[in-house]
């Protein structure tokens, strides 16, 4: 399903505290409307101000939407799923639970620019194939049978050329105006039966805004489904960010209190979905049936690749344990400068992925020269540690 159950999951599991927060928000909105009734009519917003005016575009909608799903956008999603985050971002654990069939963990980050909270979650299903999880997760018609927050869903458009699907979903929020999602999404098939999906908010001429719904203007989500290495299980890793018009702390409470119950319900219904006959599956063209292969230029990390990312391995080469401890007790600016240098290394390697050896040498050369000027470190020692790695112990 393209609308993640982060905020409107299982509301029955939110607990007394979450419902009290919702009730307080409802009372606040009621008081605000009451106050507006006593304003002079000249100060009230008129109907022309409330009604959203359709935007005029010079390009067809399918052209505008396709630009949201370029190869660059897919590579950015892959990097996020592999947790190659911005160094300054601070992530906090939210929840970690499991039972015999499913395990779930999530963490969140509040962007410094004030945008909606980012979530990264990993759900592992035992005794499950990647194809089953993909089909279940993307079957919007079946979701309406078990996800009681979904009031309505309709497909608006499917691009037969690139497989981009556009749809409209209405989800109910207790005590609040129902939320309307107009989204576009695209699915790719990666290596070893892995799958990627990118979902973004968009506009569509078949879905004009309606006053009875609150349109979710900002929505960014993506996932990767792949096998769990060495186990009869598969995982779906999700990055998610949306602005549903809720207060930040309130949205966090709803998520943390309700998501585990939602995941358990998802697992139960996926098992039911597996027993359905093929004739019960959706047959109309969709993003899954029209998905394409991940482009060859995209850098995927295999499920059995446990090697650290470039930044982590470079840190281990530059500083041993004693040096790290000295850095913690010394000047913080040196560590911050080093982090920026390592970010430069990672960026250079990414931009020269077609010639990774050349990119590594250029980045290392730049960083070595900076370190020599900054700290007066021996050039020979740094070059040996960066290019050859830490010294190998020889057995006598």
Descriptive overview:
- The structure is a single chain.
- By secondary structure, this protein is of the alpha+beta class.
- The protein has two domains: 11-31 and 57-293, Alpha-D-Glucose-1,6-Bisphosphate, Chain A, domain 4 (2-Layer Sandwich), CATH 3.30.530.20; 310-387, no CATH class.
- The chain has helices at 15-37, 47-50, 61-66, 71-81, 130-138, 140-146, 248-274, 310-318, 321-329, 332-351, 356-375, 379-387; strands spanning 92-98, 102-109, 118-126, 150-158, 165-171, 179-189, 195-201, 214-215, 218-227, 233-243, 292-293.
- Strands 1, 2, 3, 4, 5, 6, 7, 8, 9, 10 and 11 form an eleven-stranded mixed β-sheet that branches.
- A hairpin with a 5-residue loop joins β6 and β7.
- The model is unreliable at 8-16, 38-58, 306-369 and 371-396 (pLDDT under 50).
- One of its GO terms (molecular function) is lipid binding.
- InterPro entries: START-like_dom_sf, START_lipid-bd_dom, START_lipid_transfer.
